[in-house]
Structures are given as C-alpha cells and as structure tokens.
Amino acid sequence: MIRQVSIPLLTALGAGMAVLCAERIVKVLDITLGNRNSFGVVIELLAYWMPHYIGLAAPVALYLGLLFGFNKMSKDSELDAFLAAGISLGRLTRPVAIIAVVLAANAALMFGWVQPYSLYAYRATVYALSHVDVFFLAEEGVFMQTGSRTFMLDKLTRRDNSFQRIFLFDDRNEKGTETITAEAGQLVDDPERRRPILRLETGHRLEIKKPASTTSVEAVDPPIVGDFKTADIALGEIQDAIFRERGQNERELTLSELYRELRKPDLKPGRQQSLESQFHLRLALVALVLILPFLALPYAIGQRRGNRAYRFAVALVLLVAFHEILQQGALIARVSGTSVWLAIWLPFALFSAFALWRYYVACYTLPRPWLDPLLEEIADAVRAAWRRIRPATGRAMP
Q1: End-of-domain residue from the set 188, 204, 234
Q2: Contact assessment for residue 251 and residue 278, using Cβ atoms and an 8 Å cutoff
Q3: Range of 72's domain?
Q4: Same domain, yes or no, for 230 and 260?
Q5: What is this structure's pTM?
C-alpha cells in the first residue's frame, strides 16, 4: 500500500515544487538582476522559500497520491481481491495513515519552526540587496542615490566592478556640498568598515564649505578646488544591523513563540488578533493532513464502468476550497476580531465530519451512487443529439 501511494505522491511533490519554484524565480530574478554573484543569490533566496513550498506541496501530493494509488488498485481489481480475502478498506487505510502522520509531523516542523526563520532570512537578504548593494543595481547614464550622495556612472563593467567616468554630488545640508568627477574607478569591499568603497582615479574635486544665502550679507567662503590621483569614498552608512529583529511580524514567530506571546497579559487587541489567527491557522493546516486519507479514499474508488474523472475534479475542488476557507477565516479573525473557534475551527470540524462520513459510507456500507447514473444519462443524451446532427456536419462522433 505504501509503495502504491508513494510513487504518485513523489511525482506530484516534484511537479508541485517545480511549478512553485518557477513562479517564485521570476520575482527573485527581478530582485537580483545585476547583482554580484547573481546565480548564488538566486539559489539562496529560493532555498529560503523551500520550507514554505514543502509545507504547501506535501499535503497536496499526499492527496493526489492517495487518489491515484487507490484509483489504480480499484481499476486493476486489486481492491476486489483484497475484499474477497477478507481485508477491508479500513485495514488498507492503516499504512496510508502512517504516511499521513509522518507528513503531518513534517508540516508541523515546516510551518511551526523552519518557515518563520527562513521567511525572516529571505526578507533580510532582500533588504540587504536593496539598501547596501546600490552600486550593482546601477545603470549606465542613470542618476543613483545612496544616502546624501547622488552619482552617475559611464561604461559600467560588472565583471570586475569597474567603471569609466563618474559624476558624484554630495549634499551635506548646512555643512556644504562636494562635487567630484573622475576618469575611472572601481568598487571594492571593505569588511572592516562594513560598506562598499568607491576607489576613484585621476579626478577633480570641488567643495563648498557653506552654502550661499540670499538673505545674508556675510562673505561666502571660497570653494576648495583640487585634483587627485586616487581617492576612496564610502557608500551608505555604517550599520551593525542592516535589518530589524525577527518577530515584529507574526509570520516570523515559531509556534512556541506565538504561544508565549499569547500568554502575555498586556497585549493590544490588534496584536492579539494577529497572533491568535496565525497560531490557530498553522495548527489547522497541520491537522488537515491527518484528514486527507479519509477524504481521498471515497473519491478514489468507483464503479468499474462508471465515469471516474468527475470524482478527481470534485476531490480537488473540495481541498482547494477548504484551504481557501481556512485562509479567509484567519483573515476575518485578524481583521474583525471574530473568534478563531468560529472562523477557523468550526469550518474545520464540519469538513472533518464530512470526510469521516464519506469514509464510513465507502468502507462499511453499500452506497448507491446517484451522480454516476446522472452523468451517464447526460452523456447518452449528448451522444443521441450528436447522432441527429451528424449527417448535416459530415463528421463522426468522437
């Protein structure tokens, strides 16, 4: 049983991860385009999203694995052989329940602890790329600004971080201004100062100590003009921490941290609603994995000559719709203050009761399919209508 379910499960997991990564890589490339070691940064940012994608894709892969695995056994009459040997569907579900428990533990680990850290690391890396590596986002002939400095580069070579001809203007407000031009230069790293350095060659410098005032009669200090062979200019500000601390957003807190925060007596109402909705949403997503075997089995088996395609469609629509209901319930609880027991756990209880009822009917009763005959009647009506209009079209019935 585990082998029958594992093959489609792993296939669905690989396909789902590929689709999710393809969607994310477009955004990542937009962030890292033109950055040093762009390929390495892309891999790093995608790796930070892996816990989130694994947490989402693994339950869906389990669901599809159950549908395809049991459907194949049903079509090949293997389930009939089991039932003839006295092995019930309930007993066949036990090995699958082991997989569900393992994936539920994996979901708890991903959603509860790994994902908060990876999300924070992703946001910190994006912040660093946007605020520190300004030089690597520059374009030739375009003015860029970092701090109080505005500069423009000409003939930029990213391979060795060099450029030709630079114009740099530094507005120091009350301390005056400084204008620098140089024929060439290069961006170099300075680990001790923790910010990039522009190393300029063969340039000119104009410094005005105090800006001129139209209301003052005081004499203006003469500007300082000079030439230089080499000069180092730091970009940005020296910062020990380039990003905020983890935990200001509730999605960056682990389950244990969320629980400790909820135990604090002096929480503001808005903060408490956000923490509660996030905490209970994660628990519901983990518990949902345990319900999937009971939901998938009734839709995987069917009549030998009946139409099974609609069963897969109904099963997938149910799972996607319920996942969206959980997300919207968490949003309602966070925004309006509705109790999480009403917005999240009541739909979960109803969905679980429906899945268990369908499982019981499929395993321990002889259900009378009412949708299969209806679909067959619709298909027969379509075929009969096509036979009547076929002579006019000259085409055969597919």
Answers
A1: 234
A2: yes
A3: 2-129+247-367
A4: no
A5: 0.74
* Torsion sign, CA atoms 36, 39, 45, 47: negative
What's the one-letter identity of residue 42? V
pLDDT in tens, 212-232: 666 666 666 788 899 999 998
Mean pLDDT, the chain, whole residue set: 84
Q: 123 vs 158, which has greater pLDDT?
A: 123
Q: Which residue has the higher pLDDT, 130 or 299?
A: 299
Task: Note the maximum CA span of the chain.
Answer: 108
- Closest C-alpha to 123, from 245, 306, 288: 245
User: Does residue 154 sit within a domain?
Assistant: yes
Concatenated DSSP letters of 206-272: EEESS---SS--SPPPPPEEEEEEEEEEE-S---S-SSPPTTSSGGGS-HHHHHHHHT-TT--HHHH
Q: State how far the Cα of 54 lies from the Cα of 43, in Å rounded to an integer.
A: 16
| Domain identity same for 265 and 156 | no
Task: Choose the final residue of a domain: 204, 234, 264.
Answer: 234
Structure tokens at 366: 């002889």
Decide if 378 is inside a domain. Answer: no
Domain co-membership, 310 together with 337? yes
- Expressed in angstroms, the distance from the first to the final Cα of the chain is 37
Say if residue 222 is in the same domain as residue 273.
Answer: no
Per DSSP, helices labelled H in the chain are 2-32, 38-75, 78-84, 89-109, 115-131, 255-262, 269-300, 309-336, 340, 346-364, 371-393
**Phi, psi for 226 (deg, rounded to 5):** -160, 165
Structure tokens at 350: 């109803």
Total domains, the chain: 2
> Is 391 inside a domain boundary?
no
113 and 216 co-located in one domain: no
Tell me the per-residue pLDDT of 138-155, one tens digit each, with 9 for 90 and over. 678 888 777 778 888 888
The answer as to whether 7 is a domain residue is yes
